[in-house]
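Morning!

This is the sequence you dropped in the shared folder:
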Amino acid sequence: MGLGAAILVPLFFYPLAFLGVIAVAVAIGIWEMARAVRRSGAHPPLVPLIAGGVLTVGLAWFAGPDALSLGLLVTVLGTMIWRLGDGPGNYQRDLTAATLIAVYVPFLAGFAAMLAAAPGDGRLRVLVTLVAVVLSDTGGYAAGVSFGKHPMAPSISPKKSWEGFAGSVTAAAVGSAVLIWLFFDVAPWWGALFGVAVSGAAVLGDLAESMIKRDLGVKDMSNLLPGHGGLMDRLDSILFAVPTAYLLLALFAPAAG
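The structure's back. Tokens below.
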């Protein structure tokens, strides 16, 4: 609830502060990822990654998709140049890890910045996306506990089931159909499609991070949030969901201007 308040209060009452929330989340996420990949022997340079990550989401907020891509390019190039100072040992491994982090955290988070910065209704775009993700998680948990029998990806996340996935998609589709219709005056079936796509992306994001953690041999990205693990353990599904939401809302509910 504390995390929810930290997101929604600035989003609705002082939108520019929401950019600060995204920037802080990106910095923490980069730190957690860099810390985790060290178990594989990679040591991506933290300073250029964090600086470039904050720059990336800032560019996305103020200048849109082209600037987001530019921010990613600057981050990767800056990391390459910074890493030269440590010599040639494991250069490719470190740079590969740094590129993964740059794409996974600040680039995907940049879509959240662009959602929020949409003129007129940016806060509603972020809200419907977050609600779809929460409904997906809740519906998946409820259906998985009640009916889950067929594992979805046992080698990656043994607790996920196809029944849980069906619950995720159904809950997100129903809730999104209502919200998209209320907020954007769009036909409910578009909202249902939005919910299905966002839910699918959220589940893929959760599985992707689970696969990374299994590969690295870690249970959580950090212990920053007692009982929940790291911040990335809460953001994994959201990071995959926001680009999907951005693209679909741009298609059937284009922002004014």
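Headline: The mean pLDDT is 90.

More detail when I'm at my desk.
O.
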